[in-house]
Design goal:
single chain; about 140 residues; mainly beta; about 45% strand; 5-stranded antiparallel sheet
Length: about 140
């Protein structure tokens, strides 16, 4: 990446590979690696019925989530919240969170995190094993 400012651009979620390591179909659409953003990143998440994203937290970033379609159970520092389409969720820095589709249709969410962690590997801390991982 150069020192010049990022250029304005439009990108489709279908152009970004799915990340399924922690559950669901997560696509980081607008990010340093895709558009050269410098202050945060945005993406989408699709969860099938019963599917979950494992618990984790962000030590440097606030997370903003908007549920576009479906019903999702958020666990925020062990407090459950059932969220329906049209609602937003604010997750402060350091709050452990887990998401699970609590409905019988796919859930679709849009998320944004800001500010960026100093390095990508510091931005996300898992607190439970990824799906299919034991031990």
């Amino acid at each position: 990446m150069t020192d010049s400012p990022a250029a304005a651009c439009v990108i489709s979620a279908s152009e970004v590979p799915a990340n399924r390591r922690r559950g669901g179909d997560l696509r980081t659409v607008l990010a340093p690696g895709t558009v050269g953003s410098t202050s945060g990143f945005m993406g989408v998440l699709t969860l099938a019925p019963g599917e979950a994203v494992t618990e984790h937290y962000h030590p440097y970033s606030e997370e903003f989530v908007h549920l576009v379609r479906g019903t999702v159970r958020f666990r925020l520092d062990d407090v459950p919240h059932t969220v329906v389409a049209g609602h937003g969720v604010f997750i402060p820095i350091g709050v452990r969170h887990r998401l699970e589709n609590a409905g019988d249709t796919d859930a679709f969410l849009v998320f944004h995190l800001s500010p960026l962690a100093p390095r990508p590997e510091l931005g996300h801390v898992d607190t439970e094993p990824a799906p299919g991982v034991t031990g």
